[in-house]
């Protein structure tokens, strides 16, 4: 089903409307999924406006595939995501994990690695105390960038 969805543009942040179009899901469904899947934590700015990052868009597509294409229930999809995440982490620790899509999307990812706008950078640093695991996500992102750099050498 992912082949029928549009390509994800090389942007750092996406509005809820853009994510809905990219993932084939309505905004109210995305807001509901945020309550059900703890992995979905978009940055919220003034007026609770949501800004999703690329990894969250990919996670939403994965959730959508589990629910709509594979017929999982919400709790089944939640368990499957936890299972997949744990197995991916184990593979990454063992050094056997090579995501071929990193090579395919390297130019796209490099374009998206620009500096954060000042207000978003401030909000992200102030929100880390309210979002457990956020700092580990940032460190994991840095680790993945280092791994990618080693693979391209």
Question: How would you describe this structure in keywords?
Answer:
62% helix; 153 residues; 3-stranded antiparallel β-sheet; Multidrug-efflux Transporter Regulator, Chain: A, Domain 2
Summarize the structure.
The protein is mainly alpha-helical and 153 residues long. Helices cover 62% and strands 7% of the residues. Helix 3 crosses helix 4 (74-94).
What does this structure look like?
This protein has 153 residues and is mainly α. The protein has one domain (2-152): Orthogonal Bundle (Multidrug-efflux Transporter Regulator, Chain: A, Domain 2), CATH 1.10.1660.10. It has eight helices and three strands. A three-stranded antiparallel β-sheet has the order 1-3-2. A hairpin with a 3-residue loop joins strand 2 and strand 3 (49-53). Helix 3 crosses helix 4.
């Amino acid at each position: 089903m992912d082949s029928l969805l549009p390509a994800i543009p090389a942007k750092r942040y996406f509005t809820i409307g853009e994510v809905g179009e990219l993932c084939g899901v309505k905004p109210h469904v995305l807001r509901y999924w945020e309550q059900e899947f703890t992995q979905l934590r978009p940055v919220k700015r003034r007026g609770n406006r949501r800004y999703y990052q690329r990894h969250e868009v990919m996670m939403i597509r994965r959730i959508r595939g589990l629910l709509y294409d594979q017929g999982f229930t919400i709790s089944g999809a939640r368990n499957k995501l936890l299972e997949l995440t744990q197995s991916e982490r184990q593979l990454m620790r063992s050094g056997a994990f090579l995501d071929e899509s990193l090579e395919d999307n390297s130019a796209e990812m490099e374009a998206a690695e620009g500096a954060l706008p000042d207000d978003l950078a401030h909000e992200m640093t102030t929100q880390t105390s309210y979002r457990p695991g956020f700092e580990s996500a940032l460190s994991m992102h840095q680790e993945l960038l280092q791994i990618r750099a080693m693979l391209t050498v």
